[in-house]
Design goal:
This protein is α+β, with helices and mostly antiparallel strands. It is built from ten helices and 14 strands. The protein starts with 11 loop residues before the first strand and ends with a strand. The protein binds adenosine-5'-diphosphate and magnesium ion.
Length: about 450
């Protein structure tokens, strides 16, 4: 209010009491004008005040909403630790009302004497610098002690005088439990994956053992048959030689020779021995192949003929299938590759096995394996007459653990492992549905000098 004190003329009483004498109209006008001014000013102040009030209310509302929605607990207390205010989370946490808490000691919130003493110690020692992420148990509404990660910040007034502190805290039990559960789930998953990996290995091994057993069966029974024949022959030769040494007459010897069919024995011996040797060699080769297969995990770099590997894979899977599985193999005699024949064998066996799994319900299960050498690459196609691969599965069949087979039958690892092996050999493994029906798996590999 701007003041411009004018010296008003002295008031005089004349005539009727209560009537101002000597006050001119101009003075009244002046007063009225002044009042108007004051009134306008007041009005202005009122408006400003209301605006400020609204702002204050707004920011109070804002602070309140923040405090209420905070999941962390919050306590405001004075220098001695007497609680001045708390947020909704602390009310929920303790199960007490604001009135109960206001004016009580901060330290009563702690779960036991030990944590109370620790809190006192911490706040007196470090209160001025603040306390960060200190874990102490508070007493929850159900009476249990819940560990809470606490932070404490000192609180000052406008002139920097300490007023007390603000304490925030986050119950860590929930977090820990969630973390524990997560870790448990992760461990379980890892174990399951390992089990699956193990069962894929066991399945491979099973196929291998079945294949080897069949493979060995042939030469061994061959050798056994030959050795039995040789033993019979040996008996007859012994009988004849005994007669020779006993000085039997030439005519009798000739008769015995015919009877024991000695000439036939002599003619039979070389092929019998050759056959036995061959059978033994075959057995040795199979065992050799087995040794190579068992070196699956070694990163080998050796020349080998893929055609042989594929043919062996087909033999072994077909033998294990024990039903008629028409596999037609059209491959160049030599597909020279470099790498691990054992690992490649696993790839080929898996492809043939998958084809058998897909076609075994058909009336005439069939698989065609065609191979070509194109420039420096070998392209092998496996086309079966099964139902093919569902469109929505095509993108996933190389994913580890993707399988459409029942539990215990498929591990979903075969193609993913095969994909990795082919890739490590510098090649590619792809799948599509053949226009003539059935699935077609294509292996493309760089040819190496054998
Ligand atoms: N020749 C095929 N015909 C149809 N589906 C196939 C063929 N080969 C693979 N699949 C599909 O790909 C999936 C993954 O194969 P694979 O990785 O070898 O695992 P698994 O044989 O243990 O299921 C199979 O479950 C099957 O759904
Ligand atoms: Mg498989």
């Amino acid at each position: 209010m701007s003041e411009s004190p004018k010296s008003a003329p002295p008031l005089q009483h004349t005539g009727h009491p209560g009537e101002l004498v000597g006050v001119g109209e101009d003075v009244w006008m002046d007063v009225i004008h002044k009042m108007d001014e004051v009134y306008a000013d007041l009005l202005q102040y009122e408006v400003a005040l209301e605006q400020q009030n609204a702002k204050l209310e707004e920011s109070q509302q804002f602070i309140l909403s923040v405090l209420t929605s905070m999941s962390d607990i919050l306590v405001v207390c004075d220098r001695s630790g007497t609680i001045e205010d708390v947020n909704r989370s602390l009310l929920d946490f303790t199960g007490k009302t604001l009135d109960q808490l206001r004016g009580s000691s901060l330290f009563e919130l702690f779960a036991d004497d030990l944590s109370r003493a620790q809190a006192r110690h911490l706040l007196t020692l470090y209160g001025d610098d603040g306390v960060h992420d200190c874990e102490l148990p508070l007493r929850a509404r159900d009476g249990s002690a819940v560990p809470v990660s606490l932070n404490c910040t000192p609180r000052y007034n406008a002139v920097g005088k300490s007023l007390g502190m603000v304490i925030t805290g986050r119950p860590v039990g929930e977090l820990r439990r969630a973390y524990q559960a997560l870790r448990q789930a992760h461990e379980d998953l890892k174990r399951t994956q390992q089990q699956l990996l193990h069962s894929e290995k066991m399945a491979s091994l099973g196929r291998l053992v079945a294949g080897v057993a069949h493979e060995l069966n042939n030469p061994i029974s061959f050798i056994l048959g030959n050795v039995h024949a040789l033993r019979r022959y040996a008996g007859r030769l012994e009988q004849y030689l005994d007669a020779v040494h006993a000085g039997t007459s030439a005519a009798q010897l000739a008769e015995l020779r015919a009877e024991l069919r000695i000439d036939r024995i002599l003619a039979d011996l070389p092929p019998l021995i050759d056959g036995t040797i061959e059978g033994a060699e075959r057995t040795r080769d199979i065992v050799d192949g087995l040794k190579r297969f068992s070196a699956i995990d070694r990163d080998e770099q050796q020349p080998f003929n893929l055609t042989e590997v594929i043919e062996r894979a087909v033999r072994w899977v077909c033998k294990a299938a024990r039903q008629s599985f028409a596999v037609q193999v059209r491959l160049p005699a030599q597909i020279p590759l470099r790498g691990s024949p054992g690992q490649m064998q696993q790839v080929m066996m898996n492809l043939v096995q998958n084809a058998w799994d897909a076609t075994c319900e058909q009336s005439a299960p069939r698989l065609e394996i065609d191979g070509q050498l194109v420039g420096t690459r070998a392209i092998i196609r496996f086309h079966d007459n099964g139902p093919g691969i569902a469109e929505q599965h095509l993108a996933h069949i190389f994913d580890p653990f993707f399988t459409t087979k029942p539990v215990g039958k498929g591990t979903g690892l075969g193609l993913s492992i095969s994909y990795g092996i082919v890739e490590r050999h510098g090649g590619q493994l792809s799948a599509r549905n053949h226009p003539d029906g059935g699935a077609e798996l294509v292996v493309e590999l760089p040819v190496g000098s054998a």
